[in-house]
From TrEMBL:
Single GO BP term: glutathione metabolic process
Bilayer-crossing regions: none
Gene Ontology, cellular component aspect: cytoplasm
Gene that this polypeptide is encoded by: GSTT1
GO molecular function, one term: glutathione transferase activity
Family: Belongs to the GST superfamily. Theta family.
PANTHER family found in the cross-reference section: GLUTATHIONE TRANSFERASE (PTHR43917:SF10), PTHR43917
EC number(s) stated in the UniProt entry for this protein: 2.5.1.18
Record keyword Cytoplasm present: yes
Name recorded for this polypeptide: glutathione transferase
Keywords: Cytoplasm
Length: 205
């Protein structure tokens, strides 16, 4: 459409939900422009960004003047607006209801919070294995959905502190591998910043 602008996404790729949005856009070949907002530098608290999102959180989507400021809403909007394959967020009410959305923080790696989260993680991982992945390859069935995308970005986060929380869980490792295979290079591209944080962490040991 003439005069239509390419969507802009305001992201910090150290943030789990930001990576989820970035992966979906990249993998689906939707044209977009990234506006980096470095949370550690307080760029989310500038007057310019605060006017865009008074909650001072990322991600933010600006699509031809329309602004969305919550990760799950952004993902659902993108699937609907840009004809992204339906398996990501099925149109059928019953299947859509099964797509779970893990709680997103919109924050970068935080050592204290990370330790607390790791202490509470075992029960969640047990549930993923015993309930969601017991007889199916992805969390909601035979196809990858937004649930898998959001969950895997959450579970990749501890890599910033050089911790693979799936290292002793073969079933979840296989699930992660299936997601990586389905997403191709967009997965590693979106996690490249997190990988660098891991390398920096390891170099200081």
């Amino acid at each position: 459409m003439a005069g239509r602008k390419i969507p802009e996404v305001y992201l910090d790729l150290l943030s789990q939900p930001c990576r989820a949005v970035h992966i979906l856009l990249s993998h689906s070949k939707v044209p977009f422009t990234v506006r980096t907002v470095a949370l550690r530098k307080g760029e989310n608290k500038t007057p310019e960004f605060t006017r865009l999102n008074p909650m001072q959180k990322v991600p933010v989507l600006v699509d031809n003047g329309f602004v969305l400021t919550e990760s799950v809403a952004i993902l659902k909007y993108l699937v609907t607006k840009y004809s992204i394959p339906q398996h990501w967020y099925p149109s059928q009410a019953e299947r859509r209801a099964k797509v779970l959305f893990p709680r997103m923080t919109g924050s970068a790696v935080d050592g204290v919070k990370l330790e607390r989260a790791l202490a509470e993680l075992k029960e969640t991982l047990d549930r993923l294995e015993s309930m969601f992945l017991k007889r199916q390859p992805f969390l909601c069935g035979d196809d990858i959905t937004l649930a898998d995308l959001l969950a895997v970005c959450e579970l990749m986060q501890p890599l910033g502190g050089d911790r693979d929380v799936l290292s002793d869980r073969p079933k979840l490792q296989q699930w992660r591998s299936r997601i990586q295979s389905a997403l191709g290079e967009s997965f590693d591209q979106s996690h490249s910043v997190l990988y660098k944080v891991r390398e920096n962490f390891k170099s200081k040991l």
